[in-house]
Amino acid sequence: MYNDRPNFILGFHGCDESDCHSLLNSSSKIKSSKEAFDWLGHGMYFWENNYERALVWAKDKKKRGKLKNPAVIGAIIQPGHCCDFTDTKYIEVIKAYYRLLSDKHYKAGVPLPVNKDVKHDLHKDQLMRELDCTTIEFMHNGILNQFSSDVNSKGYSEFRLFDSVKGVFTEGGPAFPGAGIYNKSHIQICVRNSNCIKGFFLPRTKAVWP
C-alpha cells in the first residue's frame, strides 16, 4: 500500500561542465554508473536536496584528474517504485537477498566481494562498496528473472521492478568531538528507470529579496 514514492524531490548530480550542458540540451543522454563499487547499485546518482555535496564531489573528482570543470546539474525526480533503505521493509528485503547470494557463493566455493577502504580516506568509510553493489544487483536480477518468468507463463506478475534505490549514509567523521552528526552525511538516490527524471535544470544562486 505504501510502496510507491509519488512525491517529487530535487536531486543534484556532480559532473563535468560539458556533461551538465549535454544533459540540459539533450536530456535523453542519461549516463548510468555501472561501477563494481556503486553504493546503491547501477544507475544515475543524485544527492537529494544537497547542491553543496554534489559540488564538493565534483571538485574532488577534478583533484583526482577525473574531470576538468566541476559543475552541478539539478533534476526533478519522482522516485516511483523505490527500494528505499530508510524503510525497514526494504532493509529486510535486501537482507533476504544477501542470504540467497551468500548461499550461492558458498555452494560454488567462491568468496563474496567485500566493501573496502581507500588509502586516502582517513575515516575508513569503506568507499569501495563492492559487497553492497553486488547484493543490490543480485536483488534486481532476481526480481527481473521472476517477473519475466511470470509474464511468460501467465501473462502478468505480482513482482515489480524497482525504478530507483535510496539510502542514507553517514560519512566523513564526526562534525565535532563526540558528535553523532557526521561531516558528509547525505541521502543518495540512484535512478534506474530514466522516466523517473522529469527534467533537468541549471541550479541558480539565491536572489536578494525584497
Mean pLDDT: 94
Please summarize the sheet with the most strands.
8 strands, mixed
- Globally, the shape reads globular
State the helical fraction: 25-40%
The arrangement of helices and strands along the chain is EEHEHEEHEEHEEE
Number of helices: 4
- Class computed from helices, strands and strand pairing: alpha+beta
Could you give the order of strands across the largest sheet?
1-5-8-9-3-2-4-10
Between the first and last Cα atoms, what is the distance in angstroms? Answer: 44 Å
Poorly predicted runs: none
Number of strands: 10
**What proportion strand?**
15-25%
Over all CA atoms, what is the radius of gyration? 19 Å
**What count of domains describes the coordinates?**
1
What's a quick, concise take on this entry?
By secondary structure, this protein is of the alpha+beta class.
Explain this structure.
- The protein has 210 residues and is of the alpha+beta class.
- The chain has one domain.
- 32% of the residues lie in helices and 23% in strands.
- The chain has four helices and ten strands.
- The strands form two sheets. Strands 1-5-8-9-3-2-4-10 form an eight-stranded mixed sheet. A two-stranded antiparallel sheet has the order 6-7.
- Helix 3 packs across helix 4.
- It is globular and about 60 Å long.
- The relative contact order is 0.22.
- The mean pLDDT is 94.
Question: Which helices and strands, and how do they pair?
Answer:
Blueprint: E1 4-5, E2 9-16, H1 17-25, E3 44-48, H2 51-63, E4 70-77, E5 80-84, H3 88-108, E6 115-116, E7 128-129, H4 130-154, E8 164-169, E9 186-191, E10 197-201
Parallel strand pairs: 5-8
Antiparallel strand pairs: 1-5, 2-3, 2-4, 3-9, 4-10, 6-7, 8-9
Helix pairs in contact: 3-4
